[in-house]
Structures are given as C-alpha cells and as structure tokens.
Amino acid sequence: MENYFKHLDFSRYSAIKIGPKAEVLVINQIGDYSKYQIMGRCNNTLVGPNHPKFAILGKEFNYIRKEDDLLYVGCATTSGKLLTYTRNNDIADLEFLAKLPGNIGGLVKMNAGLKSWEIFNYVHSIKTKDGYIKKEDIEYSYRHTKIEEIVYEVVFNIDYGFSKDKLKQFNKMRDNQPHMPSAGSCFVNPESDYAGRLIEEIGLKGFEKGNMSFSSKHANFLVNNGNGTYEDAIYLINLAKIKIKEQFNIDIKEEVIIY
Fold it and tell me: What is the pTM of this model?
C-alpha cells in the first residue's frame, strides 16, 4: 500500500479536542521520514497553530501476529485491539492496557503504564527503519524512552494466563480519572511527590481559564469543558509551572506533548 496525505481535524481527532485542521502524511511503507513528526492517536498531545509537519502510521502497520513465544504487533494497532487479542488467546501481562487509550507505537515510545506495570516490562524488541533493536539496547525509564526513530513494530514476550482479576483491578484504578476531554496527566510526578497534590496546594484544582480547567476530580488532568482553546490550555500549564516553582522550588515538567 502506498503512502498518501489526508486532512485531520485535531479538534476532533485529539483526546483533548483542541487543534487546527492539517494535512497529515499516512505512512504505509518503512522509510526515512525525518521531515515529519510522527504521532499516534493524539491522546497525550496538544497541537497548536504553529505545529510541524505530521505523519501517522497507516493500515499496513495495524496487525497482530503470533510466532512461537513472541507476539509481533504493528504500531498502528490500538491498545484495545491488543487487549482483546490477549484475552481471546489467554496471554498474560498486558491487562493494564484496559482503558489506556492509544496506538501501540505511542504507548511504547512513552513507555506507558500504571505504577509498576509499564509496557517495556514485556517488550522483547522494537523495529525501526534500521531493523530490530533489542530492549536491552534501548534507554528507558517509567513513562519515558530515548527512542528517536519511528517505531513500526513491537515484539512482546509471551506468557500465558490472562487474568480477569487484574483486568477488573486496572479498570477500577482508571475509573477515578475524569471523563471530560483531556490529554491525560498534564505533568510528570516529581520525585517523591504527586503533580496533582502540588496543583491542589497552589489552589488550581478546578481553576478555569475560558473553557479549560484543571479537573476538580483529578487536579493533574487539564480538561476541556467545551470549545477550550490552545491559548487557554497553555496559560494554565504555564501558570501551574510558575506557582509550583514559587511555592515549592520544583521545576515541574509537562507530560502532555505540546506542538
């Protein structure tokens, strides 16, 4: 299948429901796309008016294939599709994908997960334009990797024994998250503390600017209350950073990716 361009409306495509309309390259062939910023399902992303050229992976990279004790997953595959596959095939360890939205490429690139369950725990290798790279040759930590290239495929180790109890547990853990449009956790938790606690302490939990606010349910979620704007989102992010620096002398870092 050939590459092609399509128009995306980021105010509909992105999880936070903010952003312009843009022409996006759909990649169906492995190659060098260094002029483009690759993106997944736009779940932890805030796109502004002065964004780079974007590309997404197409249908050629939406697959799941089992060979021996390894699972080969194309990076355009959604977390929901992979979770369903593991349940249907009695594969263990990926139950934490429940209610963790996104494509596998994005989830691996940011080493997504929940507390001690992170996706890299179960990765065998990844495939870039240069071929397969083993996990031990990749620098990563919780919710972070040093992967600079486009990842086309992720290879997982397979253990058997899908756990319905774990699935219930992960679903319950995520039920306390706001159901408004958001980009997930706004800030990375600083060492030995929680971003949500700091936002509460500086008085910004539930604080609104236009139609954007820090959620009154979970302070570290920046939520769109309807027709929120990029400018108001950036205002709140910067306000929180300034106040946290003033009160706690912490340089808090965004987890949401801003373009």
Answer: 0.88
Distance between CA atoms of 217 and 152, rounded to whole angstroms?
36
- Domains defined along the chain, listed by start: 4-60 (3.30.43.10), 62-171 (3.30.465.10), 178-253 (3.90.78.10)
Position 98 scores a pLDDT of 83
Collect the ranges in the chain with pLDDT lower than 70: 115, 173-178
> Catalytic site residues?
143, 185, 255
- What is the chain's Cα-based Rg? 19
Token readout for 35 is 């002029």
Is 168 in a helix, a strand, or coil? helix
**β 45-46/37-38 pair status:** unpaired
Using CA atoms, how far apart are residues 113 and 117, in angstroms rounded to an integer?
5
Residue 125 makes CB contacts below 8 A (sequence gap 6+) with 132, 133, 134, 135, 154, 155
